[in-house]
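Preliminary data (for renewal application), magnesium ion complex.
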Amino acid sequence: MQNICLLGATGSIGSSTLDLISQHPDRFRLISAAANESVERMVEICHEFQPERIVMGSEKARDAVAQACPNLSIQFDYDTTAMTEIASESNVDQVVAAIVGFAGLTSTLAAIRAGKRVLLANKESLVTAGKLFMDEVAKHDVTLMPIDSEHNAIYQCLPQNESGAIKRSVDKILLTASGGPFRSFSNEQMLSVTPEQACKHPNWSMGRKISVDSASMMNKGLELIEACWLFDVEPDDIEVVIHPQSIIHSMVSYDDGSVIAQMGNPDMKVPIAYGMTWPERITTQVEPLDLFEIAQLDFSKPDLEKFPNLRLAADAWYIGGTAMASLNAANEVAVDAFLNKRIGFLDIAKINTEVLEQTAVFPVTDLEAVFGADKTARQKANDVINSKAFL
Ligand code: NDP
Ligand code: MG
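Predicted structure:
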């Protein structure tokens, strides 16, 4: 029996994880869960799974959940400190890191420092604190399972046996991207797209922030950096391949000319289940792949003129240090402004460019450097938005 701590329980990854826990009650138990403010959904989770501890983002949300669960013996808490506690508690075996954005960094790191098996969805934590994050993974001998579908696919396609094998026999990592809902839009068409259109991903059902990131290709940029940290490679070792059907979740190309791909219907339950039981596999109730129905798989190169975020992410990697945290912070602020209809869709990349160009870069010597860069870049992004300097 594996005790699961689910950070980001009320979100899209959270709900796929809960589905798997329900499907396999003999193997998994939800022992604790965290979310920010989704009271109603957390109350449902409390009644259905009866975990030992719940943490919400604020006292108000905590009180509201607690009041709706008077007869359940659950400890209710709030704030980041309590989230780090549940992520490192001794009775937890696995932590699913599925909080969205930089807000997930502290609790994800706490899980790593406590030596838990960590299932990483929260790519922003790895992007912003990459070196520190991976150093902690090595120091605490953590099993870090990427559950971002592409990275999970790459993990499955890489040689598993020995470290160093990657460098010796891998030619390239082929990171697939659906291209998002605006793949075939012109710049002019993208000028007036709405948050609702951006959040309607053609293949995946996801939270709003990652949906906008997918539409702007920033998600692929973040994933490029994520892959560099996870697999100890550089952006030049990775080729982004637009594959609109999202059936191949990524590939690894070897020196001998072999290319190994991981395929399946686009459903996050597959990578999450793999992370939960690796090296074993379990059933997920995901529809088996019907290749005759799919019939065709297409591939093309990304358009970096139309989607500059992808290039910005590679730039940030090569600049190094806190540049990645600054870019991530700018993007979080810009996406939020777009979702609240304060800026247009194409302004997201403009704001990201401005902030990356104008923010000083420091080495990532400690977490304070990352938090400092995040704060400065958020301020800068807000200044750019308020002054409309990007127009
Ligand atoms: P959602 O928006 O659906 O869910 C986000 C979750 O994070 C919610 O439970 C939310 O709580 C919680 N949360 C947000 N802010 C805080 C905070 N300050 N403290 C505690 N909890 C917080 O996002 P997704 O599930 O789509 O994505 C989660 C992460 O997984 C992201 O990093 C994303 O990039 C990554 N990912 C997602 C994929 C997907 O298919 N959805 C695929 C690959 C990666 P509340 O509901 O209360 O706001
Ligand atoms: Mg992904």
